[in-house]
Amino acid sequence: MVSTPARQDDGSLRSGRITIDLDAIADNWRTLSAKLKTGAECAAVVKADAYGLGIAEVAVALHAAGARTFFVATPEEGLALRALLSDAVIYILNGLYPNAAADYAAANLRPVIGSTSEAAVWSDFIRSAGIASPAALHVDTGMNRLGLTIDEARSLSQDDRSGFAPVLVISHLACADTPSHPMNAEQLVRFRTLKKLFPGSAMSFANSAGILLGQDYHFDLARPGIALYGARASTSGETPLRPVAKVEARLLMTRHVRKGETVGYGASYTAERDMRIGLVAVGYADGLLRLAGATDDRPGAFMSIGGRKVPILGRVTMDQTMISLESIAEDEAAPGRMVEVFGPDIAVDDVAASAETIGYELLTRLGQRLERRYIGGRHGLGD
C-alpha cells in the first residue's frame, strides 16, 4: 500500500473560493450602528454560520468592532458562539427547546420565548433552580410565524403568578424591505402597545431593512442580519454598505459552438451565431441555483472576467456552468483563470434575482467545496 503524505490545503486543488472581507463586515456594522437613534444598541445576527460566511471568523470580527449582543437561530449555534465569545449576550431566536432549559442557563444563552408554554417552562425552571437567567419574549405583530399573539402577551403581562419578566421584547417586520408597504406602519402601531404592556423591558423591532425605515422603528436594540454581509436589505436601494463576499471559480476549458447548436442539459439554449464559450467549475452543488441559468426564452445571471460581465448560457449543472466568452480575448480566458460568480463586479442580489430568489439564499447555500479565505480582521490586510 502506498501511503500519501498529508497535504496542507492551500487552495490549489479547489475548484473555487470565497474571499470574505472581515473589515467590510465590521464597517457595515459600524455604518448601521451610526444610523440608529441616540441610545439604541446595534446587535448582530450571525445565525446559519453567519449567513454562510463562517461564524468563527465573522463573530470575532463583529465583537472586535464593538458588537456585544448577538442573535442565532438554534441553541447549537449559541453554544458554538459562546465558545468564541465568553462575554457576549446571546439570544436564541428559535426559542426554548424541550428539556433544554438547564443547557441554556449553563451556557448563559437567552431563549427568545415564542409561546405561552415556553414561558411557563422557563419560569418554572428558573424558579426551581433558584437562578436569575434572563430571557426575551417574541410577540407576533403580523408575521404569523414565531411569537405570542398580542392577546397572549397582554395576559402574560398581567399574570403576577407567572414570574416571567422578559429583559427584551421583540417582534419581526414582515415587509420592511418594501418601505412603502402599509404593513410596516400597522406593525409599528401594534408593537408600540407592547411597550406599554412591558414597561421594564427593552424593545427590539428593526431588522436590517427596519433600520432603514427610520428612527421610529429603532427602539432600544436593532438586529441587522443580511446588511452586515453586504447584500441588499431594501427595495429602496438605500443600503450604502460594502460588499463582503467574493465567490470565484476556475475556468476549466473553452470551446467553440456553431450557430444552431445547443448548450447544456435539455438543449435549452441555442447559439444564435458561432461563438466561443467557457466551462466554469461551479454549479448547484456549490450554491449557484439552477434558475440562474439561461434558456432561449429567458436570460440568466452574469459572471465577470477581468471586470467584464459575461452571461451564463444554458442550465447550471451540479459541477459546472457555461458562460459566453465573446467579449473576452483568448489570452484572458486561459484554463485555470478565476471567474467571479458574484462579488464587487456582480452583485449577489443580481444573481439571486436571475434565479428568482434573494441574496440570503445564495449566501447560506455556499458549498463546502469552495475554499474560504479571510482578509482583514485578525488576519491582517491582504492575508
TrEMBL record:
Residues annotated with N6-(pyridoxal phosphate)lysine modification: 47
UniProt-listed InterPro entries: Ala_racemase (IPR000821), Ala_racemase/Decarboxylase_C (IPR009006), Ala_racemase_C (IPR011079), Ala_racemase_N (IPR001608), Ala_racemase_pyridoxalP-BS (IPR020622), PLP-binding_barrel (IPR029066)
Keyword Transmembrane: no
Domain annotation Alanine racemase C-terminal: ranges: 244-375
Record-annotated active site: 47, 265
Keyword set, alphabetical order: Isomerase, Pyridoxal phosphate
Gene Ontology terms: cellular component: cytosol
Transmembrane segments: none
Gene3D superfamilies recorded: Alanine racemase, Lyase, Ornithine Decarboxylase, Chain A, domain 1
Residue ranges of coiled coil: none
Keyword Isomerase: yes
GO biological process: D-alanine biosynthetic process
UniProt: substrate binding residues: 145, 318
Family: Belongs to the alanine racemase family.
Protein name per the record: Alanine racemase
Species of origin: Stappia albiluteola
Gene expressing this chain: alr
